[in-house]
Amino acid sequence: MSVSRCMLLFSRVQPRICAISVRNKNALVDSRCGNFGSITLLKDPWSGPLTSRRGVYSNSSSRSPDTSLFVPLNIKSDVDDGWAVGAELTQPLDRSELLKILNKFYKRNEMQKIAADQGLDARLFHQAFISFRKYVLEISTLSADLHIILNDICCGAGHIDDLYPYFMRHAKQIFPMLDCMEDLRKISDLRVPANWYPEARAIQRKVIFHAGPTNSGKTHHAIQRYLAAKSGVYCGPLKLLAHEIFEKSNTAGVPCDLVTGEERTFVDAEGGQAEHVACTIEMCSVTTPYEVAVIDEIQMIRDISRGWAWTRALLGLCAEEIHVCGEPAVINFVTELMYTTGEEVEVRNYKRLSPCSILDRAVESLDNLRPGDCVVCFSKNDIYSISRQIESRGLECAVIYGSLPPGTKLSQAKKFNDPEDPCKILVATDAIGMGLNLSIKRIIFNSLVKPNINVKGEKELNTISTSQALQIAGRAGRFSSIFKEGEVTTMHRDDLPILKEILSRTVHAIEIAGLQPTAEQIEMFAYHLPDATLSNLIDIFVSLSQVDGMYFVCNIDDFKFLADMIQHIPLNLRSRYVFCTAPINKKQPFVCTSFLKFARQFSRDEPLTFDWVCRLVSWPLVPPKNIKDLVHLEAVHDVLDLYLWLSYRFMDMFPDANHVREIQQELDSIIQLGVRNITRLIRATETSATPGIDPLSSQRRPGPSPVSPRRVRGAPKAQDSGVEAGQLDKSLGSRLVQEGLLTPDLLRQLQKEWSKEHRQEEVGVKLVVETLNNKMKGRKKK
Question: Looking at the record, which segments are called Disordered (predicted)?
């Protein structure tokens, strides 16, 4: 070998095989990521006047990461140029000997302990070793330094522990987060969220808490101050509430803009911004200065999905006065939260303006309904069933549930409130708890059990909370309605004492607020972990995140669901993040499919035009003929909402927002027509279903709410209902058909088999009885 090649060899190998005592676990120093403070690509969200960076991060290494979230990367050889330098310097390696050496290394407890200090727990150590062994045994050309070390060990000139630095080098290549764990911990440190908003911390804000029950006038007083201010922002939980304040403000002669996720309405024809704005809380600006800000329904700060938006508004709004409206149960928490920002809280308490009483008798039958009644259900199927039964009694009813478009909800509310309209009964879900002014005399709870999503993102059935019951019951007898006194009761007799007990409880104090990682924080994570998927980045962020006792990280399952759905589509990180924050109903297959098509079209850099959208939703659409058609139209409305939402984030790629909004308004009218004729749609659905099967029979017979875990939700007691087993089977079968779990043909086949088995069982029972009778007769003769 020439002298020049030898010099080249040692210039490449010498830095790697310099004197390293591998038995000294402190000899290895991580230097890949450098100093976190030197990163200047993105804004540091922790800069602020309250706490020094050292104070914020003082305990950042105390939490161990969930290493099950670390996904190993596939790597290639550093040297693969066909020049086997190591073999040329030494000799070819025997793979069987290599396997023995590697397995001995794996069994060395000392190596596992040293690796644990570098962040490799037992799980990661095993994964890293499997990858390292495969790399050594299968790679065509090993790097020269590793080849020389392995040869020395095979010849007895080296110790097996000498493999450790090369093993760790490989481990950090497949698990890059090991090399920058401290930086990742700093990025995901969420213990001082007040410091994320330097503009708000730069001024001394005055916080006024308007506390009181539903219909106490607390929001009214806050809005009066908002209207009197030179500039202001209203932050509400619903588009309907933002729209109501928008109209009220402009009617009062105070120019006001409307900003929601899907809509921007400017009173200035030329597009200039007004001094006042009404918005949904996620859309509020934390950099624009205002004189007055109103945060409505502050108790939602603990919501497991949206609580972060209230936390952001409360800590970040740059306003001289912050008017907070909500339940008294939040007063102490808001006061404590404002203590961390150095701001005092003034509390103004309000009492209910009109009385509301709990009745001593349940309704028990739909025949006992009166004008002004509202039957509250927690299931869309119950909505359909009850509205059908009401109209079968010759009464008209309005219908309101969550998935209806806002225009349809307002139309149904107007129909119910109109004293000249024959519609005097309302059937609704708890969607009436906010955002709609309704003239309700009596609230009737059809059930006290509601499906909820827990902190882990799991669906469970629970009895409604005191806060939820008060929010719904408070809609009866509102001060501005024609009914000056409200009444509350239940549909079923056995539910009434349970409702009284729920309403008599003290509302639990709210002691926690939601947080959510920002796009900037996720970008910082991606800077260190460029090969990780967005879903995996979020998982690792939450795993490493630290919050103090006043906060929690909101549920991100919906975000991860969308991230996994579009992971295969080539998008840059910022665009991918924005797509995954889109508010869509993941339970609707058509909406999810459309979301996927939006992302795919966007990735091709092809604008999503009006014609493209019309082809996607098969526009124009016709009025629904049955409930299935109505549900599909609601899904199409959600798809158009998604287009409008994205159009304000990517204007050049979603250029036809105005045309889409026009057809969405037409679609809203079509849905309104369908809801007005909902009984006819239900009958059409029944007619098209399997003969003899009621596809909407989810309404319970008289009996208590299924609050006991031994009762199945919606299943009546046999002695209460007098329903035969065959009828119950039909009810269950109809539900399975409606939910798409069974086809009508398969259901009929199952019914035939059940009938056949039932007949066989009857024959068998008769034979047994006859045999026993014959034996008894024989014994008597003997």
Answer: 689-731
- Alpha carbons 366 and 382: distance in angstroms, whole number: 13
The distance in angstroms from the start CA to the end CA of the chain is: 114
Matching residue, tokens 């309403």? 503
CA-based nearest residue to 698, from 666, 669, 731: 731
The model scores a pTM over 0.70: yes
Q: Is the four-CA dihedral 406, 408, 410, 413 of positive or negative sign?
A: negative
What does residue 346 show for φ and ψ, rounded to 5 degrees? Answer: -100, 125
Separation CA 54–CA 596 (nearest Å)? 43
Shortest CA distance to 299 belongs to which of 213, 191, 207? 213
CA distances from 556 to 336, 455, 456 (A): 26, 10, 10
Instruction: Write the DSSP symbol of residue 744.
Output: H
Per DSSP, the residues of 187-210 read: HTB-S-GGGG-HHHHTS--EEEEE
Structure tokens at 252: 């009062």
Distance CA 520, CA 340 (A): 24
> Could you read off the pLDDT of 220-273 as tens digits, one per residue?
999 999 999 999 999 999 998 999 999 999 999 999 999 999 999 999 888 789
CA separation (Å) from 411 to 14, 205, 238, 352, 702?
A: 80, 40, 17, 27, 32
8 Å CB contact between 457 and 393 = no
pLDDT (average), residues 494-519 = 92
Q: Where is 100: in which H helix or E strand?
A: helix 95-107
pLDDT over 60 at 758, yes or no: no
> Any bridge partners for residue 326, and if so which?
211
| Torsion angles phi and psi, residue 716, rounded to 5 | -80, 155
Tell me the two tokens of residue 243: 């729209």
| Tokens standing for residue 677 | 């004729």
Residue 636's nearest CA partner among 619, 658, 650, 659 is 619
